[in-house]
Structures
1.
Amino acid sequence: MSSQSVPESPSKPAVTTSVHPITRAQCAHQPLCPNADGSDRDAAHVVACHPEQGWSLLCNGVVLFDDTGEILPDGRCVHARRADLTAAALHRVA
């Protein structure tokens, strides 16, 4: 991962943020993988899979966990939605 430094201001010290090397412009899949900010981000192709650890890296830079939790390329976390998905499944309705 590369780092970008935000310029120092008189009142704030410099802040370094991490930027994921995979960007939408580098996606070679057809059709292009969904953007990491889109609601369909989980549909991107898997570029690295570690089932023994419970996570996969998607083409759009999203780290997807087995419990459906995610870490987005900008560092934001999305909580697991497994309970929501299970509750919505028709075969679970009594």
Note: The two ends are 48 Å apart (CA to CA).
2.
Amino acid sequence: MSNEDGFTNRFFRLTRELPGEHPVLSVIIVLEVIFLMLPTLIVLVVSFQGGDLVRFPPDDLSLQWYAQIPGEQRFIDAFYRSVAVALFCTLLAIPIGILTGLGLIRYDIRFEKSLQIYFLLPFTVPLVVSGVILLIILGELGYIGQLWTVGLALTIINIPFMIWSVTSRVNALDPQLENAAKNLGADEIQTFFNVTLPSLMPGVITGSLIMFVLGLNEFLVSLIITTPDIVTLPVLIYTSIRSNISPLVAAVASVYVVVAFLAVIVADRLVGLEQFLKS
């Protein structure tokens, strides 16, 4: 028996001793989570470096870089711009997602096949290609250099996620609830706001949080279409580490990760993570 076969046998004997119905799958999931979390944990640890140079592990621990963040106006302004872009994406995506989700399920749309292809664009078209196309279009229209155009571009790219989230709730909606409301004398508008929309709210909230997090963290498209006056925080972090890798940047990035993590906590409090994952 080769050494490789012996290692494999020992691995499977070990996994059979682990608790749970699927021990091998549990081990794989744990390894994947560690693999995904490791870069974030390294950045978090580096942000506590006491010196001016990035070292891992740190020579000594200090909170001095976090204390400097309130005085770094460029990072604060970029963060506000990122939040504004994310809010713009979210507010614009809500009515589009609701109306499109209802239309796709309830009505026979002429260009439904084309829309289905469009929904696959986030997975089929590289973001750099989408960014260049949007740069050309916005440049021809003369809108480059305005913050709302960044939000519009990110909405165009990420809106399929919102539509998928709402569509999943439309599929689960019982038509008898709307029919009962109409039989009791409610018109179309009353039925929509009192029956349909409340039933879709878990999907709407889930899609809104996805749009907000994606808009907050989007880097590549923002890098292409932003100007120096309207850079978002991910772009500013990138440009900062190109000239000087400082623990300050690691501290800013850590705070940024915490904000995204808080969005997940909000999702758990509002609709529950189980419902969040189903949507």
Note: The longest helix spans residues 73-106.
